[in-house]
Design a protein that fits this description.
Helices cover 35% and strands 18% of the residues. It is α/β, with parallel strands linked by helices. The strands form 4 sheets. The chain has a 7-stranded mixed β-sheet, sandwiched between helices. A 4-stranded mixed β-sheet has the order 1-2-3-15. The two termini are 30 Å apart.
């Protein structure tokens, strides 16, 4: 094992193919390993550390709240939870928010809310949800069935009933799949795990129109693409109000690194989430809600989203030049905002490029489906840090020759 690397623990379930490295602290867009090496973090804990590491506003909020009160349960009023819900509803389509701890929990809540909505409408036969191929919605039994990835489903059968799947970005196929049992459509405005594939804004608008036409709900999974990652608070907002959902799952960046998730919706879509119909012990506790408020306060500052958008353009243009100069390694780039992907040319794999970037250039990235490398830097990333990452991709491309 290389000097400074960390051996896996025999006491931890072997569910992850971990890199042999551990970090002891973070500063902005950098992580510092246990042996003192600095790594530029273009993975952000898989789009979680939206404000980077040790952001002073988040640290102050966490430390102050930790000295006061961590948890009470939802048996009592939680002032910071109320504050966070009001910040979210004031800046989105939603009327109501339910707080949880993770993206998978948020998606489960959306699924339950959609089924309950139709039950209350006197249509209990409407329970099926149409999802997209190559989607990812979490690792619970319901969400792996919603995602329909054969690898994730293997050995966990029978799959949860009630999910149908069509091609992503294909409105005709989706419309043909709607039946008298369809309750909702579930899509990611930008597929993350599936390879950083963005939906066309016209497709999202057409989904809204189709759901209205058939009397079904539109659900967005913005767990990865939401919370500022595209230069607006949520990715679907680029459609300027023509593609708003009925329900939406949020997590990752909303806690800035603290476990926090939520699902939100219109009053009508959330009508079935009443007393006793859903619940959580930890969700939205004082500590999590205080941090979530701090994240929102930073992101809603004047100029913050404009800076994210400017940074994303710099990364997009720079990566385009890298791809063009190194076609033997990089095939194409795609995505939106600071959620971008680079497809690796065969016979190379995204895994080996990720390893080269990490080991040779101390740049951290994230692999995804379709042989794509995810670029998910903190939203506070500087021009110099973007240029450093581009230099690393350029150097890897120059060092590698196409295999015959």
């Amino acid at each position: 094992m290389p000097e400074g690397s960390i051996a896996p623990s025999p006491s931890i379930a072997p569910t992850y193919a971990r890199a042999p490295i551990a970090f002891e602290r973070g500063e902005g867009c950098f992580l510092i390993s246990t042996d003192g090496q600095r790594y530029l973090d273009f993975g952000s804990g898989i789009a979680v550390n939206a404000l980077g590491h040790s952001h002073p506003v988040l640290v102050e909020a966490l430390q102050d709240q930790a000295a006061k009160l961590w948890h009470t349960s939802n048996l009592y009023e939680i002032p910071h939870q109320r504050d966070l819900a009001e910040k979210l509803t004031a800046n989105t389509f939603a009327d109501l928010v339910f707080f949880a701890n993770s993206g998978a929990e948020a998606l489960e809540g959306c699924i339950k809310a959609a089924r309950r909505f139709h039950h209350l409408q006197g249509n209990p036969q409407k329970y099926r949800i149409i999802g997209a191929n190559s989607a990812f919605h979490g690792r619970t039994l319901a969400t792996i069935s919603a995602g329909n990835n054969a690898k994730h489903l293997e050995g966990f059968g029978p799959r949860v009933e009630g999910f149908d799947h069509v091609a992503f970005n294909n409105l005709n196929e989706l419309r043909a799949a709607i039946t008298a049992e369809t309750a909702a459509v579930l899509v990611e405005p930008i597929q993350g795990e599936g390879g950083i594939a963005p939906a066309d804004l016209s497709y999202l608008t057409a989904l809204r129109e189709t759901c209205d036409e058939f009397g079904i709900l539109l659900i967005y999974d913005e767990v990865q693409c939401g919370v500022g990652r595209t230069g607006r608070l949520f990715a679907h907002q680029w459609a300027n109000g023509t593609a708003d959902p009925d329900l939406m799952a949020v997590a990752k960046g909303i806690g800035g690194g603290f476990p926090l998730g939520c699902f939100m919706g219109t009053a009508a879509a959330m009508s079935g989430i009443s007393a006793g119909m859903h619940g959580t012990t930890y969700g939205g506790n004082p500590l999590a809600s205080r941090v979530g408020c701090a994240v929102m306060d930073v992101m809603m500052q004047p100029g913050f989203m404009e800076r994210v958008y400017a940074a994303s353009n710099r990364l997009w243009d720079g990566m385009g030049a890298v791809v063009e100069a190194n076609p033997h390694v990089y095939q194409m780039r795609r995505g939106a905002g600071l959620m971008q992907g680079v497809m690796v040319a065969e016979p190379y794999t995204c895994g080996e490029i990720v390893a080269r970037l990490r080991d040779d250039h101390h740049i951290l990235t994230v692999p995804a489906g379709q042989n794509v490398i995810r670029l998910l830097p903190p939203l506070i990333v500087s021009d110099a840090e973007i240029d450093a990452a581009l230099d690393a991709f350029r150097a890897v491309g120059a060092a590698m020759k196409a295999r015959v």
